[in-house]
Design brief:
The protein has 26 helices and twelve strands. By secondary structure, it is α/β, with parallel strands linked by helices. Helix 6 packs antiparallel against helix 7, helix 6 packs antiparallel against helix 12 and helix 7 runs parallel beside helix 12. The longest helix is centred in the first third of the chain and has 59 residues.
């Protein structure tokens, strides 16, 4: 019954949860991410290294910012008031689900949402969306699988497509952001340079017309050409430094405070560790420029310096790469965007190289400035104006070139995200899996029922089957069915089978009131077993007791006495339970005078013997409860009582107190012929039975047999045929 109840309970809960839980649908799509090798166009210093860029893209997809942008985009869409994500859509339940959940009693409300939500509400929806997104990447490829779960298959597909659109927009924004920023900077600088160039050209033209100087001698021309060339290179280097600074400024603004701090720390480390190499490179840059100016670019001395300079640059690149790796490897790649930090650090390294190059050109410019100052005043002024004009022209041309590069770079940038398949609605729900849930419910119900039943059985210390009695070497005299266990109504109207009257029926004289019932037949079977185990033909004295209270010994002895009387045996039923007597209540007799009256010399035997409504059955009640029952029962008057009544009666039955509580029964056992131990299935404690068996063995007393009282089918293991036979046979009478 326990197994069945637990199984039905768990299966019912499983069915309820399975058929009342809203279905969840999953929509999936796959995108390809191609690594852009030229995304950092100014990092052409050998700093390119392998990165797990797929992990970086997954981190961006899973980021709070991406989900927040999706929420903001959805709030501006026409579908915002029909989404489970915002709680603006109602579930459409089946009739069965409405009945199970009592949903038909609830009032449906149309919920609408405002586009201007507070940041707290946006954060709540953002977290809800992030929990529903699942992102995975299979090894050895650039594919990212994105899945979203929702109560509506069409909503799931729409959400996942919106996520991809936002992700592509962010990627394209990052790809063109650097170039757009640089383009704006160059536009502003070109406007200034154009004004300066126009002004210096006007000044030069005016000076030429005024002073009538339209050319220089060969020596002055060479000095001016060299000075113009070096100063142009110097200014172009300064312009490159400005461009690097602007790019560094843009990248730095994308970093968090923690990332800026880490980048600064790594840059300082690089500067300190590579200071000597940078100084050596600055010296070699100056020597290279000076030597190439004097001897030309093909001279052996120039080639030698170039080799040394290349070696120093390689050393700087290797050291810088190692320091960047060591510096950023301590950071969590999920928290820090390594590519941006690498860019910021590399920009600083490039700036340092350009600065050393600019310093070398600055020295050459100063030297030629001194030579130029030795020329005549008019020639000097002319060369100065011409030099400034040429420098501005070269600088303007250089910046125009950079502007065109940035414009081309911006226009050529495309997202590296490619959608393999757009998400489509998947009409098959992924949750709940009804077949799996029901199968799991069946398995859990079976194993839970078995497990709990085993635990109950493990901790149950009661006697529950006849096997437990037989293993102890005790013979079974009779199996008494539980009163009220019959499933069919007997012909006798006196036998009431209501559970609430079980305790009263245990005190009923079943063999007298319903002699054809299976219970009455069980008591007759007990009588027969006792007759066959009787050793002699003298008066049969039978004592009935039990290990503990409430096990049915009084009911057993009363009904057994009736069966002997019905057989024609002159029977005497003695209530020797001098502590809690009940025989007088069963047969509706006065308790006094009784056995204690005779034992205390206050009454004779004839005065204490009461006749009953049953032929051949007399009763001796207990009498007044004495303070010392054991001593009274062991007195000489008890021997006289037994001697006298044994001559008058064929069968004398003694109802005694429970054996585990007192010693009264052990006092009487030396006088009786047969000792019946009543055990109630599911009530008698195993420990109590063991102590009774130990005590009787120690006293060298024999137990005639055991009566299994209140037996049911579950207790009748091994005797099911006997039990069911009488149930069936007598219920058909």
């Amino acid at each position: 019954k326990i197994i069945a109840c637990i199984f039905i309970f768990i299966l019912t809960i499983t069915f309820y949860i399975t058929f009342t839980t809203h279905s969840i649908y999953r929509s999936s799509t796959t995108i390809m991410v191609n690594e852009d090798k030229n995304s950092m166009s100014l990092l052409d210093m050998g700093f390119n290294r392998e990165r797990n860029f797929i992990e970086n893209e997954i981190n961006i997809l899973e980021s709070r910012t991406t989900s927040e942008l999706v929420i903001k985009k959805l709030l501006t869409s026409n579908s915002k008031n029909n989404l489970f994500l915002f709680g603006t859509k109602e579930h459409e339940n089946s009739l069965l689900k409405n009945l199970l959940t009592l949903n038909f009693l609830s009032n449906k409300k149309n919920i609408r949402i405002d586009s201007n939500l507070s940041q707290i509400e946006i954060n709540r929806y953002t977290n809800k969306l992030r929990k529903s997104i699942q992102i995975s990447n299979e090894r050895l490829n650039d594919a990212i699988k994105i899945s979203i779960e929702s109560y509506d298959p069409y909503e799931a597909a729409m959400l996942i497509n919106t996520v991809i659109e936002v992700f592509r927009d962010r990627d394209l924004e990052w790809a063109t952001g650097e170039m757009s920023h640089l383009k704006e900077f160059l536009y502003s600088q070109l406007d200034k340079k154009e004004i300066e160039l126009n002004e210096i050209e006007d000044k030069l033209k005016s000076f030429q017309e005024k002073e009538k100087i339209f050319g220089l001698d060969d020596n002055s021309t060479i000095i001016l050409q060299n000075l113009t060339e070096f100063e142009t290179e110097y200014n172009n280097t300064l312009a490159s430094i400005s461009i690097i600074e602007e790019k560094d400024k843009y990248i730095t603004n994308q970093l968090t405070n923690d990332e800026k701090e880490l980048s600064k720390r790594v840059s300082n480390t690089i500067h300190d560790r590579l200071l000597a190499l940078k100084n050596e490179m600055s010296i070699l840059e100056g020597e290279l420029i000076s030597t190439s100016t004097k001897y030309g670019s093909n001279h052996s001395a120039v080639k030698d310096i170039e080799t040394k300079l290349k070696k120093v640059k390689n050393n700087i690149e290797e050291e810088t790469r190692e320091l960047i790796l060591n510096g950023i490897s301590v950071a969590d790649p999920i928290m820090y965007r390594q590519s941006l930090m690498d860019s910021s650090i590399s920009f600083k390294a490039i700036k340092a190289n350009l600065t050393s190059k600019a310093n070398a050109y600055r020295k050459l410019v100063d030297e030629y400035d001194k030579k130029l100052s030795l020329l005549p005043a008019k020639v000097l002024e002319y060369t100065r104006l011409e030099r400034v004009r040429a420098i501005h022209a070269e600088t303007y041309s250089f910046m125009r070139h950079k502007l065109e590069e940035s414009r081309i770079g911006e226009a050529s940038k495309i997202s590296k995200i490619r959608v393999v398949d757009r998400a489509i609605p998947n009409l098959n729900p992924v949750k709940p899996d009804k077949f799996r849930n029901i199968l799991l419910g069946i398995l859990v119900g079976i194993f839970s029922g078995l497990g709990i039943a085993m635990i109950i059985e493990l901790f149950d210390r009661t006697i529950k089957s006849i096997e437990q009695i037989e293993r102890r070497g005790l013979p079974i005299l009779a199996l008494i069915p539980a009163i009220g266990s019959e499933k069919k109504k007997y012909n006798s109207k006196k036998y009431i089978k209501k559970n609430k009257k079980v305790e009263k029926l245990q005190r009923r004289l079943i063999t007298h009131e319903d002699p054809k019932s299976p219970i009455a037949e069980s008591y007759r079977s007990l009588r027969t077993s006792l007759m066959y185990t009787k050793k002699d033909k003298k008066c049969n004295m039978i004592l009935v007791s039990s290990p503990g209270p409430g096990e049915g010994k009084t009911t057993t002895i009363a009904n057994l006495a009736i069966t002997y009387a019905n057989l024609g045996k002159k029977t005497l039923l003695v209530d020797s339970d001098l502590r809690k007597p009940v025989i007088h209540n069963v047969f509706l007799k006065d308790k006094t005078p009784g056995l204690t009256s005779y034992l205390s010399n206050n009454s004779s035997i004839k005065e204490i013997i009461n006749s009953s409504d049953i032929e051949n059955l007399d009763i001796v009640t207990s009498g007044v409860i004495p303070p010392n029952p054991s001593e009274i029962l062991e007195s000489g008057r008890m021997n006289d009582f037994l001697t006298e009544v044994s001559e008058e009666y064929d069968v004398i039955l003694f109802d005694s107190p429970p054996l585990i509580a007192v010693t009264d029964a052990y006092v009487l056992l030396k006088h009786i012929n047969q000792f019946i131990l009543v055990i109630r299935a599911g009530i008698t404690d195993r420990g109590a039975l063991e102590r009774v068996l130990a005590a009787t063995k120690q006293a060298n007393l024999d137990i005639t047999g055991v009566v299994m009282n209140a037996m049911t089918e579950e207790h009748a293991y091994g005797a099911g045929y006997y039990y069911n036979y009488y149930q069936y046979y007598y219920s058909e009478k």
